[in-house]
Design a protein that fits this description.
Low-confidence stretches: none
Shape: flat
CATH topology of the domain at 108-181: Phage tail protein beta-alpha-beta fold
Order of helices and strands: EEEEHEEEEEHEEEHEEEEEEEE
Number of strands: 20
Strand content: over 45%
Pfam family, one: E217_GP41
Number of helices: 3
Mean pLDDT: 91
CATH superfamily of the domain at 108-181: Baseplate protein-like domains
Distance between the termini: 25 Å
CATH class of the domain at 108-181: Alpha Beta
InterPro entries: E217_GP41
Helix content: 10-25%
Length: 266
């Protein structure tokens, strides 16, 4: 807990760099394990007109957040919209960010594959057609489609469907695409406990997905950059000591609030 003091927030886009020492900055950054791009929101107060004019739609933007002695990247995406409105004596510039890179999420395709084709071959072809940058492709079960496979619609959704057929998650995080087992992720060897920022007690949950029951915990901590989609963490509290994989959550910085909430599966 000794490192979790003196909050740090830095927003970078183009040649612009903002931090919470010079400006009031708020954000909400959601994350999850599906391919639907998440929309994050960054609010920066009292930017000059000349600075606001330098913010450009489509530009890459990132947030590094945490604490002076323990910080990391929590968002990398592209600016989707910029609006500025008066808010009392202040002026709030709201930047909405898509957690993805440049590709046409609505792109469609009409194509048929012959029988005896495996899922990985379909995914590789669809990924290429959509222009996705795949960091990891690992299927726990490489399903064989005996009668072939066809697509007549959005490529994006079909990739998700085939991944699910194989017991994998397909998601975009920090401008990279991952298709891998729902239980696998990035092991930062991080222990979340009251000593490292855990707030309250984790809450147990069960949920069903395509006939598969998933069990896990909902947890809240002081803002923690290591917790993102597919992060593997050790959860230690009075109610559980278990290794979990983050499924979804959000990072929040607003007023006095500076925290991360996650749902993580066993």
């Amino acid at each position: 807990m000794s490192k979790l003091f003196k909050r740090y927030v830095e927003v970078v886009t183009g040649n612009l760099k903002f931090n919470n020492t010079d400006l009031d900055i708020e954000f909400e950054v959601p994350f999850d394990d599906d391919l639907e791009p998440n929309i994050s929101e960054i609010t920066i107060y009292n930017l000059s007109e000349s600075t606001r004019n330098k913010l450009k739609r489509g530009e890459v933007i990132s947030i590094t957040a945490g604490y002076v002695e323990d910080k990391g990247l929590i968002l990398s995406g592209r600016i989707n919209s910029i609006t500025t409105t008066p808010l009392g004596a202040d002026r709030a510039t709201v930047i909405k960010v898509i957690d993805t890179y440049s590709f046409n999420v609505k792109k469609t395709l009409q194509r048929s594959y012959k029988g005896k084709i495996k899922a990985d071959a379909i995914i590789k072809d669809l990924v290429k057609a959509l222009g996705l940058k795949v960091a990891v492709l690992k299927l726990p079960k490489n399903k064989l489609y005996d009668k072939g496979f066809s697509i007549n619609g959005e490529i994006f959704k079909k990739i998700q469907d085939v991944a699910n057929d194989c017991g994998a998650s397909a998601y975009i995080s920090r401008q990279q695409t991952y298709i891998r087992p729902i239980t696998e992720g990035d092991n930062h060897r991080f222990v979340l406990s009251p000593d490292t920022g855990l707030v309250g007690s984790p809450e147990y949950f069960e949920t069903e997905r395509k006939g598969i029951v998933m069990k896990g915990y909902k947890a809240k901590s002081l803002l923690q950059h290591r917790m993102n989609t597919a992060s593997i963490i050790e959860l230690q509290s009075i109610v559980t000591k278990s290794k979990v994989r983050v499924k979804k959550g959000k990072h929040i910085c607003k007023g006095n609030s500076f925290y991360t909430e996650v749902e993580a599966i066993l």
